[in-house]
Design goal:
The protein is mainly β. 0% of the residues lie in helices and 51% in strands. It contains no helices and 11 strands. Strands 2, 4, 5, 6, 9, 10 and 11 form a 7-stranded mixed β-sheet that branches. A 4-stranded antiparallel β-sheet has the order 1-3-8-7, with no helix packed on it. The chain is globular, with a radius of gyration of 14 Å. The N and C termini lie far apart (40 Å).
Length: 117
């Protein structure tokens, strides 16, 4: 059973930086497409960034140039480096994993990021 656990969220001031981590256990991590999503209060969950098994990345327009997704296959961990944070980045951040044999992606429990002075 594949499990994902996010960490690294918290309170940060506008303009600050934060790095989120997603630890994946119980499966072949290097084969999965990993994504970061976020959901602000009262809004839908939206894609933030994705990374494929070969390292190709994709970002939402709202975070391009500020956020960087990366993965360490040896550690089974994906990261989201967030810079130049602003209040619009406040949300619960979730990671997920996708694989072609799965009917649904696997989700972590989420970690809260609050950007406020």
């Amino acid at each position: 059973q594949v499990q994902l656990v996010e960490s690294g969220g918290g309170l940060v001031q506008p303009g600050g930086s934060l790095r989120l981590s997603c630890a994946v256990s119980g499966g072949a991590f290097s084969r999965y497409v990993i994504g970061w999503y976020r959901q602000a209060a009262g809004k839908q969950r939206d894609m933030v960034a994705t990374i494929t098994s070969d390292g190709s990345t994709n970002y939402a327009d709202s975070v391009k140039g500020r956020f960087t997704i990366s993965r360490d296959n040896a550690k089974g961990t994906v990261y989201l480096q967030m810079n130049s944070l602003n209040s619009e980045d406040t949300a619960v951040y979730y990671c997920n994993a996708k694989y072609f044999t799965w009917t649904q992606p696997r989700w972590g429990q989420g970690t809260q990021v609050t950007v406020s002075s």
